[in-house]
Design a protein that fits this description.
Blueprint (H helix, E strand, L loop, with lengths): L4 H26 L3 H21 L3 H19 L7 H23 L4 H12 L7 H30 L1 H6 L4 H23 L4 H15 L3 H25 L5 H43 L1
């Protein structure tokens, strides 16, 4: 499999993109901003259509739109954590723009840009060139470094924003910076697995890690590991099964990881409940005898 150049490119870009999605996705779940991640995936497609309609590089529209809208949502939201009203309003506005750009684009004759726009919707991780793979890996690595720099104050402001603010932590600024990183990862992840599938790689590993451990740093590490593992296994499955799209396989594995984590959590809670009932019944049984 690795004898094929396109697979080596896919593993290079996919590993870093998945790591970035897994790490930032854990905080997305922790901060209850999954809806924001979903909205930004649609923003990415609208930005790509806008760039295609304008005849410029699709990636320019991707990054400008997602990062810009992410920062805008942070500025509109209370404490830089936009609520459903803010996200829903921006979502509707972006979808309206997407319809407009789609209408403009379909009347143009730019077939090459049309192919690029379709790839943004469904992903093109198996079609990356060497330069594109290196660029994707570099941008994802930059997002990972930025998140790790913000991780400690971000966790503090997520768990208890009032105390963090009282101790001088710039809660609003950190929230906006986090959303900017989310926009960056959403734009890069859209190129790999597509706007329709991006939410799965953002939310499923983080949600699975949240079910498996209550320790935030272990959860962050576990979320990144699940995302990377999903990427690797998904690429292998898509190579072995010709009719299986890579993005579908990757997100499918991530979703199965979440289901498995839910089963483990259910069994663990059942065991604790049974242990508690036995502990309560023990003294009563001894008194009865």
């Amino acid at each position: 499999m690795l004898g094929h150049e396109f697979m080596r490119h896919a593993f290079l870009a996919g590993t870093f993109v998945a790591l970035a999605c897994g790490l930032i996705g854990y905080f997305v779940v922790l901060r209850a901003q999954v809806f924001a991640g979903d909205a930004l995936s649609h923003v990415a497609f609208t930005g790509a259509l806008a760039a295609a309609a304008a005849g410029v590089d699709v990636r320019l529209g991707l990054f400008v739109a997602t990062v810009g809208v992410a920062v805008g949502m942070g500025l509109l939201g209370r404490r830089a954590r936009p609520d459903d009203v803010v996200i829903g309003s921006v979502f509707a506005w972006i979808l309206g723009l997407g319809v407009l750009f789609l209408s403009i684009f379909t009347t143009s004759s730019s077939g090459s840009n049309g192919t690029a726009a379709v790839r943004v919707l469904f992903g093109s991780i198996l079609g990356l060139s060497a330069a594109d793979a290196r660029l994707a890996a570099a941008i994802a690595a930059l997002a990972v470094v930025g998140l790790l720099v913000l991780a400690r104050p971000l966790l503090f402001s997520t768990v208890d924003p009032d105390v963090a603010r009282g101790l001088g932590v710039p809660v609003r600024g950190i929230g906006i910076a986090f959303l900017a990183l989310l926009g960056l990862v959403a734009a890069e992840g859209t190129q790999a697995i597509g706007a329709l599938m991006l939410l799965g790689l953002l939310a499923a590993p983080g949600a699975a890690a949240r079910l498996l451990t209550f320790r935030p740093w272990w959860g962050l590490l576990l979320s990144g590991a699940i995302a990377v593992g999903s990427m690797w296994l998904g690429l292998v499955l898509s190579y072995e099964i010709n009719s299986l799209p890579a993005s579908t396989a990757i997100v499918g594995v991530a979703a199965l990881a979440y289901v498995a984590a839910g089963a483990v959590d259910l069994l663990r809670r059942g065991g604790r409940r049974a242990a508690g009932e036995l502990a309560q019944a023990g003294p009563q049984g001894s008194l009865g005898s």
